Amino acid sequence: MALVGSKLRYLLVIYAAFSAIQYGLRYKSYDVSPKQFKTVAGKAAASPTSKQALSTLLVGMRSHYEPILPRSVEWHAIQLGSLSIRIFPIYTAFTEYAAAFSAPFATSGRAGLHWANSTCTVLSGQVGRISDDTQGDAKETFTQGNNFRHGQFESYVYQLEKDTLVACYGRGFLPLSSTAHITAGISAGEPLSVVRFYLAQAGNYYTQIAQSVQRVFQHYKARASGEL
Ligand SMILES: *[C@@H]1O[C@H](CO)[C@@H](O)[C@H](O)[C@H]1NC(C)=O
């Protein structure tokens, strides 16, 4: 009886945490507009080479979101489920991200289950996928300029062709995705590349926090001097 009671309490705590996060995600404000990201990514997809596509994406994002973006962005190794790909993290926060993913060689595997809705644009190459939830073999294929959505808690097997570059923006509870990323990285024998990635992101969080503190400060300064 005591055991059942404590298990129930455990479940209730998990449920309460889930609901609280869900509520928070619905009502919080986000920094990046999905529509604007799609427009920028669409422009990038029209570039003749993937190198130009990436720089168009970065320049486009900077033109809208300069203050919150890291000063320099580099490629990082990332293991997503069984996909060995590279990530170019343009913007990473606890509840939203904008990034490019690249597969220099053909690779396939599950990208994992995430508590986040992501919308992606293929900048070059080709993405094929099949949902784990649908019965039968409804394969989808996306080529340059196509968009696809990976909704929260959805699971797909992906196939990325050689030299595929994809731009994604997503919102959700990203610390959970980090758990998947970290365990996949470690099990692939790559703990150091995981550490390198999070050290870089920690630097970005610091910039973002400093930026919001600055904004609040400017706001009160302006108010104190009667400009507001
Ligand atoms: C993801 O999309 C679904 C359906 O549009 C929505 O109900 C849910 O709140 C979204 N989740 C997040 C984390 O934004």
UniProtKB/TrEMBL annotation:
Annotated Gene Ontology cellular component terms: endoplasmic reticulum membrane; nuclear inner membrane; nuclear outer membrane
A Pfam family assignment: ERG2_Sigma1R
Keywords for the protein's UniProt record, in alphabetical order: Endoplasmic reticulum, Membrane, Transmembrane, Transmembrane helix
Subcellular location: Endoplasmic reticulum membrane; Nucleus inner membrane; Nucleus outer membrane
UniProt xrefs under InterPro entries: ERG2_sigma1_rcpt-like (IPR006716)
Presence of the UniProt keyword rRNA-binding in the record: no
Main location: endoplasmic reticulum
Domain of life: Eukaryota
Record-stated family: Belongs to the ERG2 family.
Protein name: Sigma non-opioid intracellular receptor 1
Gene source species: Caenorhabditis japonica
